[in-house]
Amino acid sequence: xxxxxxxxxxxxxxxxxxxxxxxxxxxxxxxxxxxxxxxxxxxxxxxxxxxxxxxxxxxxxxxxxxxxxxxxxxxxxxxxxxxxxxxxxxxxxxxxxxxxxxxxxxxxxxxxxxxxxxxxxxxxxxxxxxxxxxxxxxxxxxxxxxxxxxxxxxxxxxxxxxxxxxxxxxxxxxxxxxxxxxxxxxxxxxxxxxxxxxxxxxxxxxxxxxxxxxxxxxxxxxxxxxxxxxxxxxxxxxxx
Length: 240
Known about the structure:
mainly alpha, single chain, two-stranded antiparallel ribbon, elongated, 11 helices
C-alpha cells in the first residue's frame, strides 16, 4: 500500500519538481498518442488510467501502448518496460543493419563481400577467382558508375537481379530508409509525435521489404557463378 501511495507524493525540491513535471508531461503525451493511434484498443482497455503494477517509471496503460507500438516498429527498450527506471524522452532508434566496417570481413556473406569489393573496400581483383569463383578482366570503379542508370537497368531485369541496386544501397547505408541507414556511430532519435510515429511505421515497412529483397538476392547470388557474373555485367553497363 505504501508503495502505491508514494507515487502520488509531490516532490518538495526544485530539481525533483522539474523531473516530476517532465515525467508527467511525457506520460500525458504517451497516453494521448495511445488514444490517437490505437483508438479501438484505447476504448477497450480495462486497465485503470494511472495503475502502476511494475517497478518501472511507466504506468500499465503506457506499457500497453508501447507494446502495441512495438508491433509497428521495434522499440529499443521493449524488453525492459516493466523494470526501466528512467523515461525515454524521445523515440530512440538503433541500427537494423550491420556496420560492415566494424565486422571481420571474412565473416561477412558473399554478397556483402562482393559489393564491398565493387565499392573498392574489399578484395583486390586478383583474389576474386579464389573468393567468388571467377575473375574479371574489367570492373568499373564506383566513381564511374551512373547510379540512376544502374537503378533503371535493374528495373528491366527480373527479380532477384532486379534488386541489385537496392542491395548495394543497403550495404552502403544509402537506402533512404532510416532503419537501414543508421550505423553503429550514428544513433538517431525523434520527438514523440503522431507524425513521427507514422513516419517510422512507414519506414519500418520499407526496411522489411528491402531486407526481404536482400535475402532473395543473396540466395540467388550464391547459387551459381553465372549469377555473380550477371551482377557484375549490370554494374559495368551502368558506367557513365
